[in-house]
Structures are given as C-alpha cells and as structure tokens.
Design goal:
The complex is a heterodimer. Chain A contains 10 helices and no strands. Chain A is mainly alpha-helical. Chain A has one domain. Chain B has a single domain, classed as Rossmann fold (3-Layer(aba) Sandwich), CATH 3.40.50.300. Chain B is globular, with a radius of gyration of 17 Å. The chains are: A mainly alpha, B alpha/beta. At the A-B interface, α1, α4 and α5 of A face α2 of B.
C-alpha cells in the first residue's frame, strides 16, 4: 500500500514538473550562462580554464540547484497538500525521499546531460571529464538530500530564499572539496578512488538520515 | 463512548494563551459547532485535534487512545482546513484521484459523477487554479463523498460557497451523522440542519 502511495507521489511530481516547464528550464539555462561567463571574465587562456574547469562546473551546479530547490516543498506547503499528506498513513520521511528524488531527476540530471558540452567549453581533458561526471553522479544527489532539510526548515517563513542559500552553501563545502580534488587527481593521472569513496560515503549517510531530518523539519514548520 | 475527547487542552501562541484546560467530547452521531470571534483559536484547536500541531498541555483521545498512538486515526478522519489541499496546476479529477491514492482509499466512487453532483460539469479537466474560489471549495469538499471516515473536522467549510452548495454539504453532513458519524466544524453562519447541533464557544482571551 505504501508503494502505491509513493508511486502516486512520484507520478504527481513528474506531472507537475511537466506542467511547469518554464520553471524547470530556468536553472539549466542559468547553469549554462554562468559557465559561459567565465571565459569572458577571466580570459580565454586554455590552461587557465582547464585548471578552473571542474571547480567552475561544480559551483555553477550548486548555484543552479539552489535556484530550483525551493520548489521542493514550497508548493505543497502553500496549497495545503502537505497538510493532507501528513494526515495520511504514508510515512513523511518516505514522502520526503520521493520528493528529493524527483527534484534530483528534474533539476540536476539535465545538468549532467549538458555537461559534455561545457567540458569542451572549459577545455577539460577526457580523463578530467569522466572524473567530473562520476563526481556529479555521486555528489549531486547530496544537493537534493541536504537541500531538502534546509527547504523543510525554511518553508514556513515568508522570505526563505536568501536564508536558504546562506544556510546551505556552507554545508556543501566538503562536497565541493572532495569533488574537485577527485577531478584534479584525474588531471594528474593519479587514482581518485579515495575522494570518490568519501563522496559515496557522504551520499549513503545523507540517504539514510536526510529524509528523517526533513520529515521532522516539515512537522516543525507545519505546527 | 465518546469518539473524540479533548482533555485539558492548552494552546499558547505568540505568548498569548488562546485557551487553557479546555475539555470536551464528541460522541458518535453528533455535530459539534465551534463558535468564537476571529483570533479566538478555533483553527489552532482544530489543528491540535487532527494532530498537525502539538498542544502546550493536555491530550486528544480517539476511541480512548491518544491520537499519536492510534494507528487508525488518520484513516478514520477527514480534515479540511483553510488551505484546500489542491494543486492549482492539476485538474479537479487529477487532484481528487491523487488524494484517493494518498489516503489509500479504494476507488469505489465514480469521480465524474461526483463532480457532476457538485455542479462542476465540464470543469473536470480544467486546472484548479483557473476555477473560482467557490468552485475550488467544492472540489475540496468532494472529499466528504470519497472517504468513508467516522470523524469529519471541517474548518469554515462554507466559505465562498453559494446557497445551493451549502445546502448540498449540509445534506451530506446530515446523512453522515445519521449513519453514526461525527462532525466538528467551525462556521460563522448558523447551520440549518434537521438534526440536533451541539455548540461550543471559544472566547477571545487577553
């Protein structure tokens, strides 16, 4: 029964995302534009861009993820769907997990899809590109998971937008450090399994704990 | 035995005591109409009764058990708050279908017929955000026909409804009460029910 409830939540999220296509396009366009600005701002030297590439892509991913993050629970909170959700038998943490998964699917996976193009923009080598894709695959679900806690905490406040960024960006520092370190190691032809394993450990930890924390934060925001 | 018991409830909001040591009971087959001026704490009380907020003191019992330990409370209760719980981007049909799945209600009721009964013919596929306030309220109230629950907790159910819709909802309330169901509602207008209505008054406390 819980499986049916969860699949209903997922289908509804996909339908809502499809109905609000313009809102979905904004983060991805923002991502591409931010990266396109870097060669213009720092000069088009291929070595410089290659050195900065991984960091630039990761920071742009962080910022564009933050743009779409507020959508995670805002609409459900505002229209009362969340209230009704809390009065159903479905555990709130699983609801939160499904919402985070569909957020990742809808606003972060497109970033993964356009990343080959941007790797060319920033003159990344093939080794660096594959390392980058791996760090994005392992690391980007963390953005949705940790971000969900922040959104759940600020959803009841009327002006949560900037507060949310201030709250979350410091939390993403370890993610940024390990992800760019993995790409740097790949650039030097060194093994980077250590950094990737640390990212995977962070992901598993967040996967286990973030839905619970989010559910609790949603309850606090609701009362 | 009383279906729902509020035992010595106290609620404090923004350092103001809305009510303290409030006790009452709702029996099976009873309508309880909650009165009180704006700001008296009617909505806060209802949110405590359904379990969305926690009281400062006291507890709520359903069938003699505290509601947070009662495994069937959610499936035995319908709550309609100020927020309709409808996504403005989805149609009435999609919203109600989702709600059925969310609340794990078997889909025995024909949604098209129900929406027709509620005067929403031809609007089933229109996004709810494009409907008028009264029509949105009608969609939200369709839940009273969908879920077989013993207890209805309704916060201002008649807001924005026209007279025919109010009559429809009142008839549904009467039928529910005759089938030994209970209704707890707030409303600033008088009810015209053929059954006995119990009243509870919350006063504004300084």
């Amino acid at each position: 029964m819980v499986m049916q409830q969860l699949s209903a939540i997922f289908k509804r999220d996909m339908l809502l995302a499809f109905r609000q296509r313009s809102e979905l396009l904004q983060p991805i366009l923002f991502f591409v534009l931010v990266i396109a600005l870097f060669p213009l701002g720092v000069g088009p030297g291929p070595e410089l861009l290659q050195k900065m590439g991984a960091g630039v892509i990761w920071i742009a991913t962080l910022l564009s993820a933050l743009l779409g993050l507020e959508r995670l629970f805002r609409d459900d909170f505002a229209d009362g769907s969340l209230e009704q959700q809390m009065l159903s038998d479905c555990p709130l943490s699983l609801y939160a997990l499904i919402k985070m998964f569909s957020h990742w699917l809808v606003s972060i996976v497109p970033v993964l899809v356009v990343s080959p193009l941007l790797a060319v923009f920033l003159n990344l080598t093939v080794d660096m590109y594959w390392a980058l894709v791996l760090t994005l695959l392992i690391g980007s679900p963390l953005l949705s998971l940790i971000g969900g806690i922040g959104v759940a905490l600020t959803v009841g406040l009327r002006k949560g937008g900037v507060l949310l960024s201030l709250l979350l960006l410091p939390l993403f520092v370890p993610l940024l450090i390990f992800a760019t370190a993995a790409v740097d190691a790949a650039a030097l032809q060194l093994p980077n399994t250590g950094q990737l394993a640390l990212l995977a450990a962070l992901l598993l930890l967040a996967l286990g704990l973030a839905p619970l924390a989010t559910a609790y934060a949603l309850k606090v925001s609701q009362s | 035995m009383a279906l729902l018991v509020a035992h010595e409830l106290t609620c404090i909001k923004s350092d103001r005591e809305l009510f303290s040591a409030l006790s009452f009971a709702v029996d099976a087959g009873q309508v309880l109409h909650l009165h009180g001026p704006n700001g008296a704490g009617k909505t806060s009380l209802l949110r405590i009764l359904v379990g969305l907020s926690q009281p400062y003191g006291g507890q709520v019992l359903f069938n003699g058990q505290p509601i947070n330990q009662h495994s069937e409370y959610n499936s035995q209760m319908i709550y309609l708050g100020h927020k309709a719980g409808l996504s403005p981007h989805l149609s009435a049909l999609e919203n109600l279908h989702y709600w059925q799945q969310q609340q794990a209600i078997p889909a025995t009721v024909d949604l098209m017929n129900l929406l027709e009964k509620l005067g929403l013919v031809g609007l089933e596929e229109v996004p709810v955000g494009h409907l008028s306030a009264g029509q949105q309220r009608r969609v939200a109230l369709a839940r009273l026909w969908l879920k077989p629950a013993k207890l209805w907790i309704l916060d201002e159910p008649f807001t924005a409804l026209d007279t025919s819709a109010i009559e429809l909802v009142q008839t549904q309330i009467e039928q529910h009460v005759k089938a030994a169901g209970s209704v707890l509602l707030t409303s600033h207008q008088a009810l015209s029910l053929s059954i006995e209505v119990h009243n509870l008054r919350l006063d504004y406390q300084w």
